[in-house]
Amino acid sequence: MLLIDCPHCGPRDENEFHYGGQAGIAYPETPATATDAEWAEYVFLRDNPKGWFDERWFHVHGCRTWFTLRRHTVTHEFWKAP
Amino acid sequence: MTHPDFLWRNPDPRPTYDVVIVGGGGHGLATAYYLAKNHGITNVAVLEKGWLAGGNMARNTTIIRSNYLWDESAAIYEHSLKLWEGLGEELDYDLQFSQRGVLNLAHNLGDVREGRRRVNANRLNGVDAEWLDADEVKKFCPVINVSERARYPVMGATLQRRGGIAKHDHVAWALARKADAYGIDLIQGCEVTGFEITGNRAVAVHTSRGRIAAGKIALASAGHTSVLAAEAGIRLPLQSHPLQALVSELLEPVLDCVVMSNAVHVYVSQAHKGELVMGAGIDSYNSYGQRGAFHVIEAQMAAALELFPIFSQVRVLRTWAGIVDVSPDASPIIGRTPVDGLFVNAGWGTGGFKATPGSGWVYAHTIAHGEPHALAEPFALERFTTGALIDEHGAAAVAVAH
Prior knowledge:
The structure holds two protein chains of two kinds. Chain A is built from one helix and five strands, in the order E-E-E-H-E-E. Chain A is mainly beta. In chain A, a hairpin with a 3-residue loop joins strand 1 (3-6) and strand 2. Chain B is α/β, with parallel strands linked by helices. The longest helix of chain B has 21 residues, at 71-91. The mean pLDDT of chain B is 95. The A-B interface holds A 1-2, 13-15, 18-19, 21, 36-37, 40, 43-50, 53, 55, 71, 73-76 and B 224, 226-227, 230, 235-240, 284-289, 293-295, 325, 328, 384-387, 402.
């Protein structure tokens, strides 16, 4: 089980959180003129790296904060700023 | 009966092949077998980074069924089930394919309506399906708890009698032996690290054992498909997750059917050897780590024990996880890619085992002809742009985003 460092509550068990997938997915800037391919990319395409991954977490059973962490998808360790 | 020492050669890679299949799991081996059997293409290599069938093929819960909701899914999974029904004889190997019936339980009125709808849809597609009420469920599977007092009471179930299980290792070995007999090279310990693309055409793979030129390259790499596709500059709508399963200690025969529950996220069968085999839902986060969190196992056990109080004293022998590639609509992606000569067969998520022969059949056709097989056509990558999704979150059982 992951120990997830909530910026508000500190380290808490994984099962207090909801996973939000890749971080930094921006809504199309000009939705009225976005092509089908651009919509497909926004709605369906996400990075799926084997390695470090910036991802969203939601402390749903805690402070209900959404935040971003960098986690390694093989070792499951969270990035610690050097 | 004595077992031969080797069921296939262990060749070194040759410099060039007509078709290179990346991934020596069930789908890769089935694809190789049908390339040879149906299309006469035998100058083929299957490249496996580890050992044959050592990935998800070695980790799955082996449930076979075809009771999917949508026409496109029913067609491909039913094709697969029909192949299963003759596969042991065809491969001359006991696959321990046991059509013992698969129950999909309904725990609330929404489930009941969805289940009845699915039975009707299945029948229209020529897939055997029955609706059982709670009493009939109890008759079919006496050890199941149908008490109204349960947290998730059993209100009925769909039943596919032709569904069941098979022995995953035997399936892989049987396919490998036949593919090898056709002259196909099954190359283990050979990891693909990149692709050589000339113009817009994939012409070779770079591997841990050198460069291998290929007329056509076919990915059959399940959870690692995104990593490989990225090497070819392709982004696929796939997310890799751990999917956990477990087995109990060996028991006398006690459960003679397969029981699945979408709502409580557990599926249970008893293997021929005697252990209970149970699967869970996917762990929520992206991972290539082949392990998941214990709370998922805990929830799965709680669900199983509520359905089967008789198992309360049974001990868990071992748990594990495989990495499954989940697509946005819980349906596979089969066909061509934006790179010529490079094909993809991925996104089977939590349910690829049942599709092994059907997937190999349509993928081999797609590779041989350069055009999708009719059953594979709806599963092309383009559907995420056109919007023609095949949403099987209901039938795929566990590839459900929460």
